[in-house]
TrEMBL record:
<dbReference type="Pfam" id="PF13460">
    <property type="entry name" value="NAD_binding_10"/>
</dbReference>
<dbReference type="InterPro" id="IPR051783">
    <property type="entry name" value="NAD(P)-dependent_oxidoreduct"/>
</dbReference>
<protein>
    <recommendedName>
        <fullName>NAD(P)-binding domain-containing protein</fullName>
    </recommendedName>
</protein>
<dbReference type="InterPro" id="IPR016040">
    <property type="entry name" value="NAD(P)-bd_dom"/>
</dbReference>
<feature type="domain" description="NAD(P)-binding">
    <location>
        <begin position="8"/>
        <end position="126"/>
    </location>
</feature>
<dbReference type="InterPro" id="IPR036291">
    <property type="entry name" value="NAD(P)-bd_dom_sf"/>
</dbReference>
C-alpha cells in the first residue's frame, strides 16, 4: 500500500490536490498534518474516514520527520517558506531506503521583478525548461527562494531513492474543491481589502501583469507527477524538476482592479468606484497588502509540465475573467465579505 503524507491538507491547493488523490488512488493510505482536532474531525468526515490525521503544526519538527520517514509520497502545500519543516523533511528523506517522492508547493512570485516602475521588466517571460538555470540562480531576496533552494538539495542527499518536484503556480483562480478553505489568495485578498476600505487601488498605474491558472489545472499537475512516480516512469526532478502551471494571456492588474470594482459596486458591497494609484508603501499602509503581489510582473511558460503530458483545460482568459464574479459570489454567500460602512 502506498502511503501519502500531506501537509496543508485543509488549504486551498492542498485540499484540492488531496481530493483528487483520493479519487484517483482509492487504495492510498493518506495521513495529514492538521493543527486542531476540529480540522482532524473535518477531514475524517469529509473523506469518509479515509484520511488519518496527526495533530501538530509546521514547528512540530519531530512529528514531520517521523511522518516523512513513514511515507512513500509527501506533498507539502502549506507554507512555501518555512525552512525548519523543510529541513526536517530533508533529514528524513536523506535516510530513506525505499523509493520516495516529495512535491513542494512554491509560487511564481519568486520571479517578481520589482514594485519600482524603473525596474519593471514586462517583456520577460520565464520558461521552466529554457530558463531553468536562470531560475535556479535567483537571489535569496526573491520570495520563496531560500525554501526552493533547500528543496532542490533534497534529491542530491539521497539520489538513489528520492525524487523531488517543485510546483510553482502564478495567480490561481477558481473555487477550490478540498475540505476547508476553497478560495485562493491574490484576487480574494484584494476583494476583501477593497470591501473593508471602501474603494480600490492599483500599484502606481497598474501596468503590471501576472500569469494565471485554474485550481483544477494546478491539481492535475500534482496528480500527473504522482502517476509518473507510481508507474516508475521517468519525469524531470531535482534541479530540473521546477514546474510552472499557467495558460492564456497574463492579466494586467489594472484590468483586474477595474473588474473587481465594477462587480463590488454592482453588488452594493462598495459605493465608491474610484481606483487610487498608490505607491507600494501606501498600498501596504491603507490596504494591508504586500504590494509585490499586485505591483510586479510574473509571466511563466509551463514547458516542463507539458513535456510530460500536462494539458490545462480550465485556465483560458475567458475562464479567468468569469471566475472573478464567481469568486466574489462565493465569498459573499459564505459570509467572507461584508458591506462597507456608508461613511467610507
Amino acid at each position: 500500500m502506498t502511503r501519502l503524507f500531506a501537509i496543508g491538507a485543509t488549504g486551498y491547493v492542498g485540499g484540492s490536490v488531496l481530493s483528487d488523490i483520493l479519487k484517483v488512488y482509492p487504495d492510498f493510505e493518506v495521513t495529514a498534518l492538521v493543527r486542531t482536532q476540529e480540522k482532524a474531525d473535518l477531514l475524517k468526515t469529509a473523506s469518509n474516514g479515509r484520511i488519518l490525521t496527526i495533530l501538530g503544526d509546521l514547528d512540530d519538527l519531530d512529528l514531520i520527520e517521523n511522518a516523512t520517514k513513514n511515507a512513500d509520497i509527501i506533498i507539502n502545500a502549506a507554507s512555501n517558506s518555512h525552512l525548519p519543516s523543510l529541513q526536517s523533511i530533508k533529514k528524513a528523506l536523506a535516510s530513506k531506503k525505499t523509493s520516495t517522492l516529495f512535491i513542494h508547493t512554491s509560487g511564481a512570485g519568486v520571479l517578481a521583478d520589482s514594485v519600482d516602475p524603473a525596474h519593471y521588466n514586462p517583456s520577460k517571460e520565464y520558461s521552466d525548461v529554457k530558463d531553468i538555470d536562470e531560475i535556479n540562480s535567483l537571489p535569496d531576496t526573491q520570495p520563496h527562494r531560500p525554501a526552493d533552494k533547500l528543496v532542490q538539495t533534497i534529491q542530491d542527499s539521497n539520489p538513489d531513492y528520492v525524487k523531488t518536484a517543485i510546483v510553482s503556480p502564478p495567480t490561481i483562480f477558481g473555487i477550490g474543491y478540498g475540505f476547508d478553505n476553497k478560495i485562493s489568495a491574490q484576487i480574494p485578498y484584494l476583494v476583501k481589502s477593497v470591501v473593508k476600505v471602501g474603494h480600490n487601488f492599483t500599484v502606481y498605474e497598474g501596468n503590471t501583469a501576472w500569469s494565471h491558472v485554474h485550481i483544477e489545472d494546478v491539481a492535475a499537475l500534482y496528480i500527473l507527477i504522482v502517476q509518473k512516480f507510481v508507474a516508475k516512469e521517468s519525469f524531470p526532478s531535482g534541479y530540473k524538476g521546477y514546474y510552472f502551471v499557467a495558460d492564456g494571456t497574463p492579466h494586467l492588474w489594472k484590468d483586474v482592479a477595474m473588474a473587481v470594482t465594477e462587480l463590488l459596486v454592482a453588488r452594493k458591497l462598495i459605493s465608491d468606484p474610484r481606483i487610487d494609484k498608490l505607491s507600494p508603501e501606501e498600498v501596504e499602509k491603507q490596504f494591508g497588502l504586500p504590494a509585490l503581489f499586485w505591483g510586479s510582473n510574473v509571466k511563466t511558460i509551463p514547458d516542463l509540465g507539458k513535456s510530460i503530458g500536462w494539458k490545462p483545460t480550465k485556465s483560458s482568459d475567458s475562464e479567468f475573467w468569469a471566475s472573478i464574479d464567481a469568486e466574489v459570489d462565493f465569498m459573499q454567500k459564505h459570509g467572507i465579505l461584508h458591506r462597507t460602512l456608508s461613511s467610507h
